[in-house]
Amino acid sequence: MNASSAAVRIDKWLWAARFFKTRSLATDAVDGGKVRLNGERVKPARSVKSGDTLDIDNGSTEWEVEVQALSETRGSATVAQTLYAETAQSIARRQQKAEQRKLFQEPGEAIKGRPTKRDRRKLDGSSW
Predict the structure, then answer these.
(1) Domain ranges of the chain
(2) Which 3 state secondary structure label does DSSP give 79?
(3) What is the DSSP letter of 110?
């Protein structure tokens, strides 16, 4: 952890906290509005400080976290987890989405092998 600096670029912090695999992915996400700092859309060079709130959407999962510590270097996953604290609302929302994914049944699951024309019509919902 880098305690000497009072602020770190948001794209570096997201990469160090392991929300994105590469710094360029983090930069693209910030540019694309997938990351919000205290509810506002920001640029990748914007500094993040302890106590800031981030809304992060990396494509598969959405988090709402509070920055606890700063780091410019990517460390182990255990070190990365000390950089932030996820809010209770965010944890509940992620668990609810995980339940929905678990209960969702794929429409073509009952069909074995390649679907026939009849199966395809059933999947598409057509009334041929």
Answers:
(1) 1-89
(2) helix
(3) T
CA-based angle 67:71:72, to the nearest 5? 130
Q: Tokens in use for 87?
A: 């809010």
Report pTM. 0.74
Sequence-distant (≥ 6) Cβ neighbours of residue 52 within 8 angstroms? 37, 38, 66, 67
At 6, phi and psi to the nearest 5? -85, -15
Give per-residue pLDDT as tens, 67-94. 999 999 999 999 999 999 999 999 999 9
User: Domain 1-89 belongs to what architecture?
Assistant: Roll (3.10)
Query: Measured between alpha carbons, how far is 128 from 122 in angstroms, rounded to an integer?
Result: 9
Count of CA atoms in the C-beta half-sphere (13 A) of 19: 30
